[in-house]
Write a structure and sequence with these properties.
The structure holds 3 protein chains of 3 kinds. Chain A is of the alpha+beta class. Chain A has 2 domains: 267 residues, Dipeptide-binding Protein, Domain 1 (Dipeptide-binding Protein, domain 1, Alpha-Beta Complex); 217 residues, Roll (Dipeptide-binding Protein, domain 3). Chain A contains 19 helices and 19 strands. The N terminus of chain A is likely disordered. Chain B is an all-alpha fold. Chain B is built from 14 helices and no strands. Chain B is globular and about 85 Å long. Chain C has one domain: Orthogonal Bundle (MetI-like fold). Chains B and C meet through helix 1, helix 6, helix 7, helix 9 and helix 11 of B and helix 5, helix 6, helix 10 and helix 12 of C.
Chain lengths: 530, 337, 299
């Protein structure tokens, strides 16, 4: 009976479409996401794709980034105080916040300090019952240096929590707004003690959307959390249609099968702008694509050689051919959307003749070098191979012979960080928490040599500036220090700063109030459909 | 017969051991360290690296790792995916129905069009029909399907807008996975009107793309098998006796020609799997082929290792079944190995 | 005495060849395929003379120029240019070199190793046979493309490694064919006679048995020539075959995927080149089979 009715309903595609529309009078926004989320506990993973489906819809953090900016606003903590020595952070928690009621869990109490303790202690304490669950690797928690930084977390009362640090650290608050710091339900975790893996696959959070179901490589479905503490989302349903191929995503957007798509092919963007049903939002991404010389190896230990090679590259041509317009020439190692960006710094001008002269002056003749091209696509470098080919052609004009080398990605990361690496490596970085230290400290400090400092560059002047900035909590002072550091950086030229990407997000004109997230995430709270 | 089965099974055991060795050691030979991939641009400290190695068991001697792998294999445990941290077996069985559904549709499509085309060509041997069918079959047989897929997408989805571009069903529907086969789930287990039709529309292009090569092979094989049978004495006799050609073809010729054709269909499973890898990549079809490709690029060791093993096991079993049924149908085979 | 016997042999070989050509010529499709194939070889050999541009030169003022017959096309770039302004026609012309190269290398490796292993297995039987054939079974248990993909992932993504991987996955067919022929030939009277008269095994294998099982091997070689081209292109398409800027057809397809909507010609031509090349080789293969192997005729 049921079957025959359905067959009747499906006699033609048109009928099917009609039926589909009437079945969803509720507001359903479809987001054509680029991949499957790895899981739903953000702390276990590192990919933006996973955060989009978990921390950014399902969970809240103690403090959060204001939608569409890198500014901090209160989240599950209503307010906080920092002690005079900068080592104690006390958070006053929000009251009356409800966890999701789902098919798999019904909460019996509101959010409180136990949930905060659970969420951090799971990552922090090796003997925590959940520490080893689902692989038990907490890369962001480790990567941001949390294990050595957080000495203790104390529950003062049900709605007050104190973080005790081992040293003053200015970027700490920004760190707590990151995805790994998402707050999960301790009550739910207790209930799942017999089946802990499921805890990470069927999430319960306090966020604006709650998970309905997930089918790998196909679909993630959410509905609005009716009791959300900021107020219920304007959308009723949120669907992630997993569509890894960018041209396919575009097809679907055109056909109205999805409303928002991330990562369009740069080549398609011009086309999209002509389409009256599509609106393209743009913003500079929080990233930098660079080419790092090995500053410890001759002839690249000579600043003149580095400067000359910088001048030999036609960056505009790279923006055109590799970024196809979705990029902006970079002059500083941090992106322009970040505070303390020093706009007064002047870039090395494209001038092959001057470059040739400078090379001669440095006594470099018939230079043969390697340029390393990453094997993967990254926002800061959509096609490293193509970029390397362009650089190769540019260098040929100043008499430098380039061999392009590439390795499998893991191997590439390892070999490129080697102190004795031969040649200049293309790489980049995407910011985690909007703090300049997250760029300058990670990528250019002396500590990073043999690791994330691919230029193997250690400059005393630069180092003292950024170390001082890290322990100062006064924002104006920090800004001044970082601005000065950028001047030193440009003078010494350990990198050729190539580009910042411009993030383009095509959305359907039916979508209202969508904002690009500077961190590259996709947030749907506050978004509406016309 | 029993002896034949036992003998074939006996042959499978060393092959299976070979398969476990291959999938295990291949993965160990893959360049690229999953721990480094996990860390990304950020990098990882040597202490942390050692800690993670111990966690994944990579600090053990390789032989011990293999024994451990075998021991777990017999408990049905193929390890846990690096990227999703979920059991490989579980992931395999969530995605497998999608591949089976596509493969079955492709085979049905290939038989539905390949058989009649082959028969028709055989009957009209040397005529225009024959030439057209054979030329088309040759082109189909030579088709680079990773180009064929995009070409069909450009035409049917891009210009004409008839078919959806990718996926298994319109994302307007939320279908609980009961059997995992979208056609069955939408038809019998879901109340949403239009869902079944949507699933059908999503299947059309991938089916054509994956079915093209089997179709061509089946058409060619059917034609030649038919020609052979049509030449046999008893068919000539039947013709001479004045039986209508419809009856001759329907009863005598077709039945006998089917035996080699059925074998060909059975033997296409390996080809289908290879084709599924490309088809699923082109159409973002959430199946095993795409899962494997993604995992190879992601260096998800446990998934590649477990997936290789499961796929090989399935192919071996299917080939065994084909072998045995063939032996059953055609007794001559039994004695000549 | 001995001179005379050589003459007879030469004559029969010539006869065989003539006879073969007679058969082959009657198959029109095969002849067309052969002409096309010869043409392709010429194109590959004289690529630098024929191609209007260098295959890797980037014309930075002509990114994604359409082919001549489309609006905005010009005779400078007859088939248009790709995303970095390289002439597609020139790339396809140079690409023919890689495809032929892949076919020749893969077939040579697979054929020579396959014949060797097949002869070993078929002549000695016993444990040698068992080991070789079980290894072949293992290779056959995996879908060929998947196995090749994993192999290339292990060896590193280059065209040479792709060829090695494809040769390995094609190996079992040659081994099985050779072994089967050897076993059936070994029971023939002339082999028995030779054995009795004390001809040593290696000589027996290569001089007597092998020439008599060449026919199916040649047919298989034609078949795997086209499979090799397709598989290499498929690997290129998946991003593990030849690496850019090599103008290999499959790699060109992979590079052009993102332009499928706004510049479909970048994708259209390399795919078409693969298709017609493979069709031509398969035509030749069909012709060879009909002419060489009457048993397999019409199949």
């Amino acid at each position: 009976m049921r079957t025959s009715r359905k067959l009747l309903a499906g006699v033609s595609l048109a009928a099917a479409m009609l039926a589909a529309n009437s079945a969803f009078a509720a507001k359903t926004l479809v987001y054509c996401s680029e991949g499957s989320p790895e899981g739903f506990t953000p702390a276990l993973y590192t990919s933006g794709t996973t955060f989009d489906a978990s921390s950014r819809q399902v969970y809240n953090k103690l403090v959060e980034f204001k939608r569409g900016s890198t500014e901090i606003e209160p989240g599950l903590a209503e307010s906080w105080e920092v002690s005079a020595d900068g080592k104690e952070y006390t958070f006053n928690l929000r009251k009356g916040v409800k966890f999701h009621t789902t098919k798999w869990f019904t909460p019996s109490r509101d959010f409180n300090a136990d949930d905060v303790l659970f969420s951090f202690n799971r990552q922090r304490l090796k003997d925590h019952p959940y520490h080893a669950v689902s692989g038990g690797t907490y890369e962001y928690f480790e990567g941001m240096g949390m294990p050595s930084l957080i000495k203790d977390i104390q529950k003062i009362d049900d709605y007050t929590v104190k973080f005790v640090l081992s040293r003053p650290e200015a970027p700490m608050i920004a760190n707590l707004a990151m995805d790994f710091a998402s707050i999960q339900s301790a009550e739910y975790a207790d209930k799942m003690l017999d089946n802990k893996e499921l805890f990470d696959q069927q999430p319960v959070g306090t966020g604006p959307f709650q998970l309905v179901g997930y089918r790998k490589d196909a679909i993630v479905r959410f509905k609005a959390n009716p009791d959300y503490w900021r107020g219920k989302a304007p959308l009723d349903n949120l669907v992630f249609a997993i569509t890894p191929d960018a041209s396919v995503r575009y097809q679907k957007l055109k056909a109205g099968e999805c409303h928002v798509m991330p990562y369009p092919n740069p080549a398609d963007v011009a086309d999209m702008e002509k389409d009256s049903n599509i609106k393209v939002l743009r913003q500079e991404g929080l990233n930098i694509g660079y080419m790092a010389y090995n500053t410890q190896q001759p002839p690249f230990n000579d600043v003149r050689v580095r400067k000359a090679l910088n001048m030999a590259v036609n960056k505009q041509a790279i923006i055109d051919a590799v970024f196809q317009g979705s990029g902006k020439i970079a002059k500083n190692p941090i992106p322009p959307t970040m505070w303390s960006y020093n706009n007064a710094v002047e870039d090395d001008k494209y001038d092959p003749e001057a470059a040739k002269k400078l090379l001669e002056e440095a006594g470099v003749k018939d230079l043969q070098m390697k340029v390393w091209a990453m094997p993967v696509q990254r926002p800061y470098n959509p096609n490293a191979r193509r970029m390397a080919e362009l650089i190769q052609a540019d260098y040929a004009k100043v008499g430098v012979d380039v061999e392009i080398v590439s390795y499998e990605w893991g191997e590439y990361l390892k070999r490129s960080s080697d102190k004795d690496r031969d040649g200049a490596a293309l790489l980049g970085w995407t910011g985690d928490n909007g703090d300049p230290d997250n760029f300058l400290g990670v990528l250019l400090s002396c500590d990073g040599i043999g690791g994330s400092n691919r230029a193997q560059w250690c400059n005393e002047e630069f180092e003292s500036l950024i170390q001082k900035a890290k322990t100062t909590s006064d924002l104006a002072e920090r800004t001044r220090l970082y601005e000065e550091a950028q001047v030193v950086f440009k003078r010494e030229a350990p990198w050729n700063t190539i580009a910042h990407s411009i993030v383009s997000e095509p959305i359907s004109v039916r979508v209202d109030n969508y904002m690009i997230d500077p961190f590259g995430g996709h947030n749907f709270y506050g978004v509406d459909l016309k | 017969m029993l002896r034949l089965i036992l003998k074939k099974l006996g042959l499978l055991i060393p092959t299976f051991i070979g398969v476990t060795l291959t999938s295990f050691f291949f993965i160990r030979l893959l360049p690229g360290d999953p721990i480094l991939l996990l860390a990304g641009e950020r990098g990882v400290s040597p202490e942390r690296y050692a800690e993670l190695q111990a966690k994944f068991g990579y600090d053990q001697p390789i032989f011990m790792q293999y024994l451990d792998f075998l021991a777990k294999l017999f408990q049905g445990d193929l390890g846990v995916s690096f990227s999703t941290k979920q059991p490989v077996v579980q992931e395999f069985f969530t995605l497998f129905p999608a591949t089976v559904e596509l493969a079955v549709c492709a085979i049905v499509f290939a038989v539905l069009f390949g058989l009649p085309a082959g028969i028709f060509a055989a009957i009209r041997r040397g005529k225009t029909v024959d030439h057209t069918v054979m030329t088309t079959a040759l082109v189909g047989y030579s088709m680079p399907i990773f180009w064929w897929g995009p070409a069909l997408i450009i035409i049917f989805s891009g210009f004409l807008g008839w078919t959806p571009v990718s996926g298994r069903i319109s994302n307007m529907f939320w279908i609980e996975s009961t059997t995992g086969f979208m056609l069955i789930d939408t038809l019998f287990y879901s109340d949403e009107p239009g869902a079944f039709m949507s699933a059908v529309m999503h299947l059309i292009l991938p089916t054509i793309v994956l079915g093209t090569i089997p179709l061509a092979v089946i058409a060619r094989q059917t034609r030649s098998a038919m020609l052979e049978v049509l030449d046999e004495d008893y068919v000539r006799t039947a013709r001479a006796k004045g039986l209508s050609s419809f009856r001759i073809i329907g009863i005598h010729a077709l039945r006998n020609a089917l035996i080699p054709v059925v074998t060909v269909i059975g033997l296409q499973i390996g080809v289908l799997f290879a084709g599924a890898i490309l088809t699923e990549t082109v159409f973002s079809w959430p199946g095993i082929g795409k899962w494997m490709v993604d995992s190879i690029f992601r260096r998800d060791y446990p998934v590649v290792q477990g997936g290789l093993l499961m796929i090989a096991a399935i192919i071996m079993v299917v080939n065994l079944i084909v072998d045995l049924t063939y032996g059953l149908v055609n007794p001559k085979i039994r004695h000549t190995e | 005495m001995s001179d005379a016997s050589i003459d007879v042999k030469a004559e029969t070989r010539l006869d065989l060849l003539v006879n073969f050509w007679k058969h082959f010529r009657t198959n029109k499709g095969a002849v067309i395929g052969l002409y096309f194939f010869i043409g392709l070889i010429l194109v590959a050999v004289f690529a630098p003379l024929i191609a209007p541009h260098s295959p890797i030169e980037q014309y930075r003022d002509a990114f994604k120029a359409p082919p001549v017959w489309m609006e905005g096309g010009s005779w400078k770039f007859i088939l248009g240019t790709d995303a970095v302004g390289r002439d597609i026609l020139s790339r396809i012309i140079f690409g023919s070199r890689y495809s032929l190269f892949v076919g020749v290398v893969v077939v040579s490796i697979a054929l020579s190793v396959g014949i060797f292993l097949g002869l070993l297995a078929g002549t000695f039987r016993g444990w040698v046979d068992t080991i070789i054939m079980r290894i072949m079974d293992v290779i056959l248990a995996f879908p060929s493309l998947l196995l090749a993909l994993v192999l290339v992932a292990i060896l590193g993504p280059t065209l040479v490694n792709a060829m090695i991987a494809i040769a390995i996955v094609q190996q079992p067919y040659y081994v099985r064919l050779t072994r089967a022929s050897v076993i059936s030939e070994m029971s023939r009277e002339y082999v028995m006679a030779a054995r009795v008269s004390g001809v040593r095994t290696p000589r027996l294998m290569f001089k007597t048995v092998l020439p008599n099982c060449m026919a199916p091997l040649i047919v298989q070689a034609a078949l795997s020539f086209s499979t090799a081209i397709l598989d290499a292109a498929a690997l290129g398409f998946l991003g593990v075959g030849a690496q850019p800027p090599t103008p290999e057809w499959g790699t060109m397809l992979a590079e052009s995927r993102e332009f499928i909507l706004n510049a479909p010609w970048i994708m259209a031509f390399p795919g078409f080149a693969i298709l017609i090349t493979v069709v031509a080789i398969n035509l030749i293969g069909d012709g060879l089979r009909d002419a060489l192997d009457p048993k397999l005729k019409r199949s």
